[in-house]
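Predict both folds.
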Amino acid sequence: MHLIIQFINIEKIKDKTNIQTSSYSDNELLIEQFITNLVVGIGRYNRGEIISAHQFVKTSALKKLLLLIEKNNDLDKNIILDNLDPLRRFEFVYPELGAEINNLLLKPIPKAAEELLNILERELPEEIKIKHEKSINIIFEKYLK
């Protein structure tokens, strides 16, 4: 009986994981989540909520950006990447970009957010739609002046 319960729990976790990872497959959704995380993070930073701002910019937004980069790059090396955690092994597959991202994580929230946006625009220009460009411009003009 105990083994049956364990199997059922494993199946539930597997189903939940499949649902979670499927939400990572839509570029448009990932870009929108990335932008939203940056806006929320910068807003919280501006209100003095620094710990929460770090979480939104340097963790949540970063994770969406790495998912986008990994998903949209046809490198054979992607095999060594972790399909549940885009942070794992990233710098092994993308050493220069990994070093750049590691350096920006040590910067203040606004500068880190700006550099994350610059990476998105540089690495995935073909995935950015007009509505995303408008949102990105608003972030630069309103939040990162």
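Second protein follows, with its predicted structure tokens after the sequence.
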Amino acid sequence: MADTDLKTLTDRYVSVWNEPDPERRRTAVRELWSSGATHVLNAPQEMRAAAAALGFDRLVLDATGHDALEVRVARAYQEFVAPGTFVFRAVGDADRIRDVVKFRWQMVHRDGGGEPVATGLEVLLLAPDGRISHDYQFIEN
């Protein structure tokens, strides 16, 4: 397994979600995730409530492969970062056991004021080359 520095990994991970340039974002996605990687998201509460109303007891969203990951990252960028209100940042609590990495991130006001708008827990499974093969995202608030 490639020796991956936790701070570098978490900084690169958070940076891709804040990247305004589509070409640099595309390159970053390919460098960060392996070609068949999967990003799995526990759907936000409002989506889970809508699914429950339709009789679904669990709603999990996933994106697999570079193309789908690019769409996922670009969509989050367009919704949260591009309007100029928010940015994402790592909390700095990364930890690792073998090929599993966990860390928290926050979505905060761009000006740095106020409490975090959202917090999430990321659990990453790293491939032997150090890129992400599985990415599990839990929105905590």
